[in-house]
Here is the input.
Amino acid sequence: MRTAIKTKIPLLFLIAISLWWTFYYQSNSVLNDFGSANYEWLFFIDAFFVLPILCFVCIKNKKEALLKATVLCSIAVLVGSFIIPQTNKLIWPYLEQGRYFVLAALVLLELSVLLTVYVSIKAALNQNIDPDLAIAEPIKRYLGDGLVAKVFSFETRLWTYALFASRIKPERFNGEQHFTYHQKDGAQSNLLGFILLIIIELPIAHVLLHFFWSPLAANIITALTLFSLVFFIAEYRAYAKRPISLTANELIIRYGIYPPQVIPLSKIAAVKAHATYVKRAKQVKRYNSSGVPNIAIELKPASDGSDHVIPTIYLGIDQPNVFLNELKPRLAL
Here is the structure.
């Protein structure tokens, strides 16, 4: 079974037992002896015995498994507080109080991890190493290589470029030659335009929502808008900092704050200039934010015959001719 599917089994199990026991507890039939057999231990066994075991069986990294089991069990407590009839709750009231302790413990854990990762990243950025590795390695060390680590890496990259972009030097990125993309068709300038629009619109929208809808809605939408503003600022700064790079054996595509895509040169079938619009499709991957892509990279089919490899990647870079002149000879070797 694929790892990506296997790691989702605990969550799917929680959803399944939540639906089943909701039906069981809320029904009035022979299943629950017409309401007299609504025992809380039925849901308790599934939620606090079977679910944690599934987490440790399906997730290789034990730290991630423990974290996921804790989170899912806390969600199970919340679900149980709604679906189990009040008259049948004996242990559940204590569990409901305990979930706040678990939440506080998780927050403290997250803060400690954040602090540790921040110190590690700060130290790494001061050294002459790839900034992407400076961000990714401390997170991988503490959180493993699962979905949580990937999300955390993205968040960390976002805040790193939003707040500390001046400390990141493009020449420190891994690669023999680097190619920029921030000037193509005013890509970075367009992002600056979005940032200015958000800054101008934010206070006006907040006041209108506050008085014509509700203060709560205004606060929520303003918070989400502020987060999008941070994202655009990070993206704006990353455009000029994170290059597309060539090594002896790999093409490393970095674009904005998104995770880098590493393509072995042996997997590239052809590379050529491009000058037409490319629609969104499952078969293509576009790294281009303004205008039309000017580079098309065709990848070789997967050796196992599967179709999970995207066959064509399109790039929009500042100097496409220089890029082609450097990449084509390497493919011929």
